[in-house]
Amino acid sequence: AQSVAQPEDQVNVAEGNPLTVKCTYSVSGNPYLFWYVQYPNRGLQFLLKYITGDNLVKGSYGFEAEFNKSQTSFHLKKPSALVSDSALYFCAVRASGGSYIPTFGRGTSLIVHP
Amino acid sequence: GAGVSQSPSNKVTEKGKDVELRCDPISGHTALYWYRQSLGQGLEFLIYFQGNSAPDKSGLPSDRFSAERTGGSVSTLTIQRTQQEDSAVYLCASSLAGQGAIDTQYFGPGTRLTVL
Fold first, then answer.
1. Assuming Cys at both sites, which of A33, A69, A86, B89 could form a disulfide with B37, CB separation 3.0 to 4.6 Å?
2. Which sign, positive or negative, has the C-alpha torsion B11, B35, B80, B30?
3. CB < 8 Å to B35, chain A
4. Are residues B35 and B46 in contact, defined by beta-carbon separation less than 8 angstroms?
5. What would the pLDDT profile of B45-70 be if each residue is shown by its tens digit?
6. How far apart are CA B41 and CA A8, in angstroms?
C-alpha cells in the first residue's frame, strides 16, 4: 500500500520569506513523487516530480523539493514567497513497481501575507 | 494546445436524479483518470482508462457510479440516483501514456456537483 501525509492543513508565511510545505510518504520500493498546486476554482497544475537522480528537484514558479529517502520526505520549498503563491498544494506518490495510480495527500493551504 | 476540459462546470441536482459529467482529455493522451475531491479531503481515485478500456475501477464507491470512454477520447462519468454524499468536485485528468509510464497528469477544472 502507498500513502502520503501532509501534516499541516495550513501554512502561513509573510511575503518575501522562505516557505516549506511538508510531505512524507510510505511505499514499497522506490517512490515516484509529485507536487501539484490548485488555485481557487481551477484544476490541479503540475509543479515538479522526483523520479531518480538528484535529490533536489526544481520545478515551476521557482519551487523546488528535496527528496530525503531516510526520512521518507519530499518537502516543497521556495526561497521567497509571493502573495500569488497562495493556493492549495498536493503531494502525491506512487511506487516504481506498483500501482500506476498515484495516491494524493489531503492538501495544504498556503497563505502568503503581504 | 487545449488542456483538459470538463462540463458542466457546476451541476445542482435533486436527490435521486441521475447526472452525467463529461471530460475531454488532451488530444493524444491515452490515459484518463477520474477523481473526486471533497471539502477538506484529498483526491479520491475513482477510475482509470487506458484507451477505451478501464483496467482499474477500484475507486468507484458504489454501483451507482459508472464511466465510459469512447473513441479513446471523451469520457462520461454517470452517477445514478444521486445522494447528498455525492456532492463534491469531480476532477478528470489525462496523461500521455499511463500504465507503467512516469508521465505527468494534466487536470481539468472540475465539475462541482451539489445534490440537494
1. B89
2. positive
3. 104
4. yes
5. 999 998 999 988 989 999 999 999 99
6. 13
Could you give the 3-state DSSP secondary structure of residue B22?
A: strand
CA distance A52 to A32: 8
Q: Provide the shortest C-alpha distance from residue A81 to chain B (in Å).
A: 24
Percentage above 90 pLDDT, chain B = 73
Q: What type of residue is B25?
A: P
Q: Which residues in chain A have Cβ-Cβ distances shorter than 8 Å to B100? A: 100
The string of pLDDT tens digits covering residues A29-53 is 889 999 999 998 788 999 999 998 8
Provide DSSP, B56-71. Answer: E-TT--STTEEEEE-T
Q: Given the DSSP bridges, would you call strands B43-50 and B53-56 parallel, antiparallel or unpaired?
A: antiparallel
Write the residue in B6, B42, B102 that is nearest to A104 by C-beta.
Answer: B42
* Neighbour-count burial of A75, counting CB atoms closer than 10 A to its CB (0-12 exposed, 13-18 middle, 19+ buried): middle
Return the beta strands (E) in B53-110 as ranges. 53-56, 65-69, 75-79, 88-95, 106-107
φ/ψ of residue A62, rounded to 5: 80, 5
Which of B41, B91, B101 is closest, CB to CB, to A43?
Answer: B91
Helix, strand, or coil here: A4?
strand
A43 neighbourhood in chain B, CB within 8 Å: 4, 6, 91, 93, 107-110
